[in-house]
Amino acid sequence: MSKDKQFSLPGYQQYSLPKGSNSHGSIILVRATIPSSEVKPVHCGDGVEAQAVRIHLANDSLVVYNIYKPPPKRLEAGELLTQATQELVIIAGDFNAHHPTINPTTTMNYDDHHLMELLTDVPEITLINTGEPTHILGGTLDLTFISTELVPLAQWEVDDELTSDHFVTTTTLRMELLPPPPRPPPRCNTKNANWKLYQDEIQK
């Protein structure tokens, strides 16, 4: 989306990264009735485009990342995927990945090694693609990662009717099924309280 072509969709809050000389352009749309705010994305590598928006939930929040990694660029996803150790995340986009785990008929490249090592080292994040191609030529270039605790709430699918050279992928999260966060530890240790001293102090 270029700066001179404004896009708007009634009823949605728009967060956009305009198309420019060093940007292909991207957009995140959030229903206007859902509280949200833009977040500064972590660095994902030189020339890798990233957007981040925080969705404010009743008892928690979810950070949504939109990623585009051009084919010649190197992905640096360590800080990105380890976000899941600190908060709930969904990370989706065109990673131009060709790892045999995702695409059995392709040759592994640097980014594929990098992503698979991170998935091994960071159990808090999970790749939820089902193995279906996301590109009309058969590749699975578009990946979706979510916080592992969200996996039981997630459904991922490809829509083969909405397409350009990539198919649309849809991730549905049933957030109402997410257990409430654990209660914080008590600020006072009442087991070791000197209640007589406390009562005496109150009387004074």
Write a structural description.
The chain has 204 residues and is mainly beta. It has one domain: Endonuclease/exonuclease/phosphatase (Deoxyribonuclease I, Chain A, 4-Layer Sandwich). Helices cover 12% and strands 32% of the residues. The chain contains three helices and ten strands, in the order βββββαβαββββα. The chain has a six-stranded mixed β-sheet, with no helix packed on it. It has a two-stranded antiparallel sheet with strand order 1-2. A two-stranded antiparallel ribbon has the order 9-10. α1 links the parallel β5 (61-68) and β6. The mean pLDDT is 81. It comes from Homarus americanus. It holds the Pfam family Exo_endo_phos_2. Keywords: Nucleotidyltransferase, RNA-directed DNA polymerase, Transferase.
Strand-residue proportion: 25-35%
**Main CATH class:** Alpha Beta
SS class:
mainly beta
Q: State the domain count.
A: 1
- Looking at CATH, which topology would you report? Deoxyribonuclease I, Chain A
Gyration radius, in Å:
22 Å
Query: Regions with pLDDT < 50 over 5+ consecutive residues?
Result: none
Q: Please give the order of strands in the largest beta sheet.
A: 3-4-5-6-8-7
Query: Counting H and I runs of at least 4 residues, what is the number of helices?
Result: 3
Shape: elongated
Number of strands: 10
Order of helices and strands: EEEEEHEHEEEEH
Spatial separation of the terminal alpha carbons: 70 Å
CATH architecture: 4-Layer Sandwich
Biggest sheet character:
6 strands, mixed
Residues in helices, as a percent range: 10-25%
Mean pLDDT: 81
The CATH homologous superfamily corresponds to Endonuclease/exonuclease/phosphatase
